[in-house]
């Protein structure tokens, strides 16, 4: 069984090479952030690091025993076999929760999951790339900065954001809001989650009283002081109660795991444990009640939108669930199209790195490198100092920062050189989110409303994965949605390892050029002129 503590980096070499050891540490690190470690569930209600405990043990054994010129193949979190593939091939290839189109439904997924035939890995849990809430803090922060720029003259001071869900990813919302200068009121139905976020420093304080929460929020707004408040309650009850009191928030969104009606959204009138009991006895009834509550929740968001609030969905399928109950939910925009896609068109997305030595000094050195090397990237220039000050590290020292096509390969090569001369004390793993230019098709999120209508074409992430594997990336994964996301998405994940070798230079150059290269071509192909400009200045051959 893998260790699950932040001591991961202090382990000696247990594998036959540093690349295998790095991926093992990435796996352990992901598990160390799990919301429900006993079930191997990392976040989003059901996103798992491995199929089950037996599969996890076999994966760990395979990583410790395999040679550098072999490839471990994993099917939905279960190891299949190890193949001799050569030194330039990926060490690990994965396919997670892919179902043939006609059968790609939640019901079919749950049935297969129950029979132990499939597992969902979320975006970054199943391919061992999760770095805790920091990963999502930056994306949320970036979105809020774009919201502030577009609607509030660049400043969220004195502005109230109402949201719900303080889980694995949603727990980043209060910290991101504070970083952006606003006041976050976060409704959460599970008292333990509120406590967990307060303990981790992501949330300032919590209360069970709506009156107290509102008084704290008003006081902070009047003082134009950033603040974050957790309020125990059900979003489908608390939001209407706020409306009844005449509250019109400046910004409204949601990060309950509404995409999953069995594991992700607690219906009105139930505690989380009562919902879990009903899941065991009558899952369809639980889903029915959850959807009805989501409908109420979304109706309230729509009313606020009509009253002038800036409302957007943050990618949890809340609108689709409410629409099933007849709510006109797609009047609410998705955050990606509105605030993030312009960045994707320039090849900018959430790049991340993990210092597998476990040494904070390694992370500090790379932070300095980013600030020094990318003076023309305002996102990184603004973010790195804020993250250094405000993001409490958990697990292996890691950082996320939005870097563009070209910048990612440049940074990874510099890091590889620093590993080579011993300036960095251990290998560094580079990954990215699937919320990224090249790696995803999700017609209700990342690729909603593409100008050429290609929202649901999943050739692009599949090509991205093939290209990454052909480039020799260390880990490549293709994913489809599981649970409530079944049938909704296709994506590709990639990990590169800087272990100081010349071979790593080659892999990094090829794969990190390919990864965002195919992304800017995808957006250029869809008709975005900024993406076409990015492709032209990249020097890549393009037939557009
Ligand atoms: P999670 O399962 O870890 O947490 C969900 C939280 O919502 C839990 O703490 C739960 O108690 C709470 N909750 C459930 N029902 C509630 C209700 N009725 N009222 C108040 N609280 C309630 O999930 P997570 O990892 O935090 O992710 C949340 C959702 O956001 C997922 O759907 C995820 O896919 C989505 N998300 C999408 C993106 C993206 O688009 N890139 C990024 C982050 C999160």
Automatic annotation (TrEMBL):
Which top EC class is named for this enzyme in its record?
lyase
- The Enzyme Commission number assigned here is 4.2.1.49
Which GO annotations describe the biological process of this protein? Answer: L-histidine catabolic process to glutamate and formamide; L-histidine catabolic process to glutamate and formate
Quote one Gene Ontology molecular function term.
urocanate hydratase activity
**Keywords annotated in UniProt:** Cytoplasm, Histidine metabolism, Lyase, NAD
What is the free-text note on the cofactor? Binds 1 NAD(+) per subunit.
Return the Pfam families for the record.
Answer: Urocanase, Urocanase_C, Urocanase_N
Q: Which Gene3D superfamilies match?
A: Urocanase like domains, Urocanase superfamily
Q: Which reaction does it catalyse?
A: 4-imidazolone-5-propanoate = trans-urocanate + H2O
Protein name, entry field: Urocanate hydratase
Origin species, per record, is Actinomadura chibensis
């Amino acid at each position: 069984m893998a260790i699950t503590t932040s001591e991961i980096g202090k382990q000696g070499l247990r594998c036959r090479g540093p690349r295998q050891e790095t991926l093992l540490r990435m796996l352990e690190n992901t598990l160390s952030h799990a919301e429900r470690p006993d079930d191997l569930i990392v976040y989003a209600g059901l996103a798992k690091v491995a199929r089950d405990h037996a599969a996890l043990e076999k994966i760990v054994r395979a990583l410790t025993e395999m040679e550098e010129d072999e490839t471990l193949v994993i099917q939905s979190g279960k190891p299949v076999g190890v193949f001799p593939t050569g030194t330039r091939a990926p060490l690990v290839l994965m396919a997670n929760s892919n179902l043939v189109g006609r059968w790609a439904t939640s019901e079919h997924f749950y049935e297969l999951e129950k029979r132990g035939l499939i597992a969902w890995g979320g975006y970054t849990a199943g391919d061992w790339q999760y770095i805790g809430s920091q990963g999502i803090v930056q994306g949320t922060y970036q979105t809020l900065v774009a919201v502030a720029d577009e609607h509030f003259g660049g400043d969220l001071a004195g502005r109230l954001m109402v949201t719900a869900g303080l889980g694995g990813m949603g727990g980043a919302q209060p910290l991101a809001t504070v970083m952006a200068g606003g006041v976050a009121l976060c409704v959460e139905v599970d008292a333990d989650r509120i406590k967990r976020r307060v303990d981790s420093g992501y949330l300032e304080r919590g209360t069970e009283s709506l009156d107290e929460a509102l008084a704290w929020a008003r006081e902070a707004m009047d003082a134009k002081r950033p603040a974050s408040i957790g309020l125990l309650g059900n979003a489908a009850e608390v939001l209407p109660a706020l409306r009844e009191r005449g509250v019109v928030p400046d910004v409204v969104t949601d990060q309950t795991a509404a995409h999953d009606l069995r594991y992700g959204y607690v219906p009105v009138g139930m505690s989380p444990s009562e919902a879990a009991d009903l899941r065991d006895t009558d899952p369809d009834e639980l889903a029915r009640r959850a959807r009805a509550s989501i409908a109420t929740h979304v109706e309230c968001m729509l009313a606020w939108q009509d009253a002038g609030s800036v409302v957007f969905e943050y990618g949890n399928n809340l609108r689709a669930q409410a629409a099933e109950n007849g709510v006109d939910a797609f009047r609410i925009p998705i955050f990606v199209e509105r605030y993030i896609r312009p960045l994707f068109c320039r090849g900018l997305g959430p790049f991340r790195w993990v210092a597998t030595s476990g040494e904070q000094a390694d992370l500090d050195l790379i932070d300095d490198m980013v600030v020094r090397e990318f003076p023309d990237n305002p996102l990184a220039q603004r973010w790195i100092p804020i993250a250094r000050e405000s993001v409490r590290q958990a697990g292996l020292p890691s950082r996320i920062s939005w870097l563009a096509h070209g910048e990612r390969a440049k940074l990874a090569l510099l890091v590889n050189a620093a590993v080579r001369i011993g300036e960095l004390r251990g290998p560094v793993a580079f990954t990215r989110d699937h919320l990224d230019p090249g790696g995803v098709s999700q017609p209700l999120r990342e690729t909603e409303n593409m100008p050429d209508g290609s929202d649901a074409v999943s050739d692009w992430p599949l090509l991205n994965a093939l290209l990454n594997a052909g480039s020799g990336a260390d880990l490549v994964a293709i994913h489809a949605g599981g649970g409530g996301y079944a049938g909704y998405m296709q994506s590709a994940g990639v990990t590169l390892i800087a272990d100081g070798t010349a071979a790593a230079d080659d892999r990094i150059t090829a794969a990190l050029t390919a990864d965002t290269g195919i992304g800017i071509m995808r957006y250029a192909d869809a008709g975005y002129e900024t993406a076409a400009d990015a492709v032209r200045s990249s020097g890549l051959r393009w037939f557009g």
